[in-house]
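Lab meeting, action items carried over

1. Structure of the two-component assembly. Owner: GW. Status: complete.
Input record:
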Amino acid sequence: QQQVKQSPQSLIVQKGGISIINCAYENTAFDYFPWYQQFPGKGPALLIAIRPDVSEKKEGRFTISFNKSAKQFSLHIMDSQPGDSATYFCAASSAGGTSYGKLTFGQGTILTVHP
Amino acid sequence: KAGVTQTPRYLIKTRGQQVTLSCSPISGHRSVSWYQQTPGQGLQFLFEYFSETQRNKGNFPGRFSGRQFSNSRSEMNVSTLELGDSALYLCASSLSGREKLFFGSGTQLSVL
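Predicted assembly:
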């Protein structure tokens, strides 16, 4: 019940295209859903995050769409650029004392944007 | 504002040895979390400290331990190293430990 399932494992997009990565969860106690971007040799960097009380959040070219009833959320990268080529992780955490510092991560999506 | 700093960046150890990794959080952040990242298991939560107290712990054996100092800096220790402990160990800091976790670049540990 603690899992977050992420798809696809890898994604190839042409420059200027839209990249879409999907995640699904089962634990209804999850109430915070961040996305992280990781480049080789670096730690994950927080991109954007959403709470279940909104269905969409946009920051620049990055948008999170959230479907509470389906227990799914997705990351859309508009106008994808070669510099966006990285590994993307969705994650989730729940309220309560046992959740401090604990993010449950998806398995990651390797995004390649071709020029 | 300086980011999360982890030292050392790389470590090579042999089985049976022990290792200590260090993490300096973002100034003002009192929560420090540790994660293990491997190609097979992905990112897994180890433990979290806040104001020198461990508030949360993941499903790792007792060989993995940590502590936090009064200046919020944290150390993680792994005793009796096993080959399977080879991984990237990441530290993350945040204000509350609930959201906006900022990660360091990690310590790449290789156990031979």
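2. GW to write a short summary for the group page. Key points so far: Chain A touches chain B through 26 residues (CB under 8 Å). The first strand of chain A starts at residue 4 and ends at 7.
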